[in-house]
Specification:
By secondary structure, this protein is α+β, with helices and mostly antiparallel strands. Helices cover 48% and strands 16% of the residues. Helix 5 packs antiparallel against helix 7.
Amino acid sequence: MAAQHDPLHAAQTLRPTILAARKETEEARRLAPSVVAGLIDTGLCRLSVPASLGGYEAAPMVGLRVYEELAAAEASVAWIAWNNALPCLLSHFLADAVRTELFSDTRRIFANSTRPSGKAVATGGGFRVSGRWSLVSGCELADWLLLMCVVTEGSEPKVRSSGVPELRMAYAPKGSYTIADTWHVGGLRGTGSHDVMVADVFVPIEWTHSFADPSQLDRPLYRMPFAALMSAGCAAMCLGIARTAIDTLFELGTAKVQVDLGPGLRDRPEVQAKVAGAAVAVDAARLFLHHVTGDVWTLCNQKTPVAEMPRARLWEAAVHAARTAKGAVTSMYQAAGTSALYVDCPLERAHRDIHAVTQHVVLLHKWLEDSGRVRFGLKPNDPLF
C-alpha cells in the first residue's frame, strides 16, 4: 500500500494495534505480525525513501515526531521504523536505477549494521562478502540488509591514503545470509536484534557504496548529516518513552490504592515536584532538539553546506534530549515504588527500554567530546561527525 499523506497521523492511528500486541511482541522477541503489517501498510519504515519511489521523504522534524509517537506506544516498534531510516538515507549514494530496484517496492523492510565486522574481497564486478554482524535489529523481518565491510585485497585490508582501512556498505538480499538466535535481553526485546552471518556471497559493486562516494540524489533530506540525524531520531524515541513514563505516574497517582499510613502518591510533595520537574525537562529538551534540527534543515534546503558548528549543536541537542529523557524515566520509576516492578506496568518496560536505547553508539558521550572540540576551534575526531 502506498504511504499515507501524513506519517504522524499514521503513527497515531497505529497506536491501538501496537498496544494490543505489546505482550506478543515482548514474548516473541520480535514485532507481532499485526504490527509489522501496520508498519508496511502505513509506510512508516519508509520515512526517508524518496517521494519519487513512493516514500515519504519526510522532513526531519516530522520524523522526530513519528519516532516519539511510536516509542510512546512501544519502543521496539519505533526502533524498527527508525532503524530502516539509515539504508533509506544512504540510498542517495546509489545510482538511480539501483535505488529504484531496491526501494521502489513499498512493502520491503530493511535492516543494517554499521559494525565493520565483515570483509569485502574485491573481485570482477563486485565483492565477495563474508562476516558476522551483531545487533542487526529487525533482521528476521528484513528483505535486505545493509552491512559494513572492510575492503580487502588478498588477505590484507585495503588502506586509504589517510592510513585508515577502506570501509564499504553492501546490500545483501534475504536468502544470502543466516540468522543466529542471540537476542536474549532486557530492553528493546521486541526488536529481534540477532546476529547475521554471510559466507562468501557475491555483491555487485553497484549494490555497494562508501561514505566518500559522491551523492547521486541532490535533495534536502539527503544533504542532512546522516549520523547526527540518526542520533536525533534516537533521542526522539527516548522522549516518547519518557512521555509514557510521566503519563503512567499520573495514572498511578489517581488509581493506586494506598496501603501504608500517610498521603497517597499524588499527595506527596516530593512526587509532585518530581513529576513537574520531569515534565518541564522533557518538554524543554524536545523544543531544543526540534529547533536545532530545524536550523540544520534550513541550511540543507538552502543548499548551504552544514558546517561543523551546526553539526555540533545537533549532536548536543540529541545527546542532551536522550539524557534528559533517561533521567525523567528513572525519576518516575523511583517515584512509583513497587508498582514499577511489575511487567504489566508500562514503567517497568520504559525503564528497561530507555537504558537499552541510550546504549546505542549515536548517543554516546564521545559525541559531546567532539562537539566540545569544535567549540574550541579544533577538528572532531570521528569522521562521521
